[in-house]
C-alpha cells in the first residue's frame, strides 16, 4: 500500500479548525474518484493538521496527484500555514475496528 502524507502547520488551533473542513471535503471527494483505500485527517491542539492518504497502487497515487495534488497550493491562496509532506510505502497499519462485527 502506498501513502502520501501532508503536515500543515497553522499559526493557531482556531486557524486550523477553520481550514479543516476544506481539507476534509476536498480530500473526501477524492476517495471514489482516485480509489483511495484510506484517509486519516488529524488536528492537534497546537494548530497542526496531519493528513495520511493510502492508495492500493502507483497509478492510483499518480491519478490523485494529477487531479488533487494541488490542493495545498490552492489552500495557500486563502489560509496562512507552512506545509511539508512525503510519499511513502506503508510498512505497518493497524485499525482495531476493521475486524469488528
Automatic annotation (TrEMBL):
Q: Which domain of life is it from?
A: Bacteria
**What is the protein name stated in its UniProt record?**
Uncharacterized protein
Q: Supply the source organism for this entry.
A: Thalassovita gelatinovora
